[in-house]
Amino acid sequence: MSDSIALSGQETKRALVGYDETTYVYPVRVPGSRQTVRIVTDKPLSYEPDYEDFLVWHATGKVPDRDATVASEK
Questions:
Q1: In terms of pTM, does the model score above 0.85?
Q2: Domain residue ranges of the chain, discontinuous segments joined by +
Q3: Which residues of the chain have pLDDT under 50?
Q4: Residue 57: exposed, middle, or buried by beta-carbon count in 10 A (0-12, 13-18, 19+)?
């Protein structure tokens, strides 16, 4: 048997670079219930996300950039 270590992408990056990356967790309340869900991202958001943002993040893996959306609508 061989001794091998399987590392995920983040663990490999930590091992090679030598530091942990910061993650930002945003709790979001589900409308009509007392349940909350979480958005986890590697960049801080400049706004408080809502459930619509969670649905977009869950479907695409990316948090919508409201600042860019507001600028393009002007």
A1: no
A2: 9-68
A3: 1-2
A4: buried
